[in-house]
Design a protein that fits this description.
Blueprint lengths: L6 H11 L29 H13 L3 H13 L3 H13 L7 H15 L9 H17 L10 H13 L4 H13 L7 H12 L4 H13 L8 H14 L6 H13 L2 H18 L1
Amino acid sequence: MRIFDRLALIAVLATALMPLSAVMSGAYAFDGTTDTGNGAIAAPRPLDEAVRFGTQALRSGETDKGIESLRYAADQGHAGAQWKLGRMYAEGEGVERNDIKAFEYFTQIANMHADDNPSTPQARFVADAFVALGGYYLAGIPNSKVRRDPNRARDMFAYAASYFGDPEAQYHLARLYIDGVGVNRDPRFAARWLGLAAHKGQYQAQAALGGLLIKGEEGVPRQAARGLMWLTLARDAAAGPNDKWVVDLYDDAFAGATPDERAMALVYLEQYMKVEK
């Protein structure tokens, strides 16, 4: 079943779940066949081998060969190859950035692998593809047919968050409920998704959850010490230039906390670290 035919079901599923709290050897052609040396063409090589060859070629600076090998595997439905190509085009890594091509590869993954068992190694590629699609639908792609569609973005995030239990998806879904984008604003619902992602180490979710608890929202009682604990974890993980909001949120929370709240936050942090070990 194509993924876009079942998004309504996924929205129901997400709601129902809420209360529960890439070196190989040998001479290979890039079309997936092996030259035996006497003019004969052997059977296509395994797709995983094609992906390893492509990945090695990229690392060696042989971008054209690497992409060709990855495309061979991607055309056969290999989720890892589709994901790698999608990421390359999305980020302009070794190729000119092309959001439409990235979108197309991520869509292939969503349509072909949505039913993959969440426990399989490739499931992380599938979940990430849904998150990427959610991001594209949330913002739209200029000068293309991919228009901004917050509702579809929500469905993409919800599928990866519920079926695959992906923490990135859970964080992005929660943000929609915090901001009221594509959904009615619901801090309590957001806090539940943030809690799931935060316990998996998603630092942005930890920061957002901490912010909710520090402030207190409708349906989310104020718990300053617990919020400061989550913000401390998030601040320690924040590293990129886009993470200034995390650091600022922590600084504001720490400055506004009482000595007792700071001390209790440390107790909570020590307890959390013991459990995580």
